[in-house]
Each structure stands twice: as structure tokens, then as C-alpha cells.
Amino acid sequence: MLNNLIIAAIPHTEPWRLTTAILMIICNLLAIAITFGLVRLRSKIRVANPDDESIPARVFGLPELFAAMSFGHVIGVGVVLGLTNIGII
Fold first, then answer.
1. CA 80 – CA 58 distance, rounded (Å)
2. How many CB atoms lie within 10 A of CB 66?
3. H helix intervals, the chain
4. What is the rounded average pLDDT of the residues 22-43?
5. What crossing angle do the helices spanning 18-48 and 62-85 adopt, rounded to 10°?
């Protein structure tokens, strides 16, 4: 009985296709662009306030890339599930 309730609560997911891959790539590129913009904004704030030691003087590195890709996957999962539920893909 409990298994039937659990199975009924699991949403229908789209099988992995080229459309799904393209959507995930677009979402990851969007997340990288957002993260790169935030890093650039942080560096401009650092240039405007050189005495403020709380703002690290870094460029876009590996930690920011991992964070951007993780954020992109979260966005991508939401986009794929949302478009699947409304019947577009």
C-alpha cells in the first residue's frame, strides 16, 4: 500500500534525449554568464574600494566554475521538469 503511494508521488520524468541535453547546456551557459557577471561586479567593487579587505581580489576560477555548473544543473532540472509537465517536450 505504501509503495503505491510513493510511486504515485514520483513525477513523470523525460527520458534523456538531445532536447534535454540542449536545454541543460543552455541552462549551464546561462548560469556561467550570471556567475561571471557577479564576479566582474565584485571586482569592480574591489577597485572602487581598494581599502576594503573583506572583498577578495579574485578572478573567475575553479570554485566559481563548480558553483556555476551546480547552479546551472539546478536550473536545468527545473526547466526540464517544468517543460515536461506542461507538455512542451
1. 33
2. 10
3. 2-9, 18-48, 62-85
4. 89
5. 140
